[in-house]
């Protein structure tokens, strides 16, 4: 089960360990702790974290703000500054790197957790109008962050086998488990890649790469041993998408 991954950049070992413990208690995964820019960049490139918790005072010649700029020049990544520096000059420098949040030490677990959830929610905002119910079940680029109880779980879009409508909700099925999101299928369709997913029935969308076979006589398609309905009005589109040869 994939989890939101976090890189911790902090040169105070005790505080770094505390942050890592809090992150793991929240149900997220730490990719490691770095006390300086060089180690942080190495972890950033090897682990590709979803989020970075960044101190500003770091060991070495490069501070957290300079490091944040280097990271953002490589790949735009959400960064939360966690620092004891409260002066305007430092804050104005930090703002130039476009961080998601700027939090002052000491930082409580509840504030950190709520900040992370708000951050991931903001990442869903696009040019289009956001769907009102999509507040805690969040899509970010090529993955979902779905709220399961009190934590956000990462689900890669390519790992989804199919989507099924259940009343006002949609259920996402992977090989491992089922996830329920509070969104209508018509809204979810616009957030799934059209070159990968296709609607096969008024209540189903299917990952085309997961389809094993079609039974045209019974109007059923199979993902592994699971049979899913193929609606008459969707049949022609499905055949074209799959490059079906008669």
Task: Describe this protein with a few key phrases.
2 domains; Rossmann fold; OB fold (Dihydrolipoamide Acetyltransferase, E2P); 246 residues; 31% strand; 16 strands; elongated; alpha/beta
What is the typical, i.e. mean, pLDDT? 84
Strand order of the largest sheet: 2-1-3-4-5
Distance between the termini: 40 Å
Q: What is the architecture of the largest domain at the second tier of CATH?
A: 3-Layer(aba) Sandwich
Number of strands: 16
CATH topology of the largest domain: Rossmann fold
Number of domains: 2
Query: How are helices and strands ordered from N to C?
Result: EHEHEHEHEHEEEEEEHEEEEEH
Structure explained in plain terms:
The protein folds into two domains: 5-122, 3-Layer(aba) Sandwich (Rossmann fold), CATH 3.40.50; 137-145 and 158-241, Beta Barrel (OB fold (Dihydrolipoamide Acetyltransferase, E2P)), CATH 2.40.50. 29% of the residues lie in helices and 31% in strands. The chain is built from seven helices and 16 strands. Strands 2-1-3-4-5 form a five-stranded parallel beta sheet, with helices on both faces. A five-stranded antiparallel beta sheet has the order 11-10-9-13-12. Strands 6-7-8 form a three-stranded antiparallel beta sheet, with helices on one face. Helix 3 (64-74) links the parallel strand 3 and strand 4.
């Amino acid at each position: 089960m994939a989890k939101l991954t976090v890189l911790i950049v902090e040169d105070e070992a005790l505080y770094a360990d505390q942050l890592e413990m809090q992150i793991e208690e929240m149900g997220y995964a730490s990719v490691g702790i770095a006390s300086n820019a060089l180690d942080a960049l190495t972890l950033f490139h090897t682990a590709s974290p979803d989020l970075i918790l960044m101190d500003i005072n770091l060991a070495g010649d490069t501070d957290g703000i300079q490091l944040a700029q280097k990271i953002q020049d490589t790949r735009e990544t959400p960064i939360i500054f966690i620092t004891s520096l409260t002066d305007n000059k430092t804050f104005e420098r930090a703002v130039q790197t476009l961080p998601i949040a700027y939090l002052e030490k000491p930082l409580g677990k509840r504030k950190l957790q709520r900040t992370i959830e708000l951050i991931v929610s903001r990442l869903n905002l696009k040019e289009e109008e956001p769907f009102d119910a999509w507040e805690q079940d969040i899509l970010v680029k090529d993955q979902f962050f779905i709220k399961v109880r009190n934590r956000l779980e990462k689900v890669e879009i390519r790992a989804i086998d199919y989507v099924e409508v259940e009343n006002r909700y949609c259920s996402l099925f992977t090989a491992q488990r089922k996830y329920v999101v509070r969104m209508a299928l018509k809204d979810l369709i616009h957030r799934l890649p059209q070159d990968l997913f296709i609607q096969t029935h008024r209540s189903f969308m299917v990952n085309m790469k997961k389809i094993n076979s079609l039974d045209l006589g019974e109007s059923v398609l199979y993902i592994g041993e699971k049979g899913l309905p193929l609606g008459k009005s969707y049949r022609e589109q499905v055949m074209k998408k799959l490059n079906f040869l008669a």
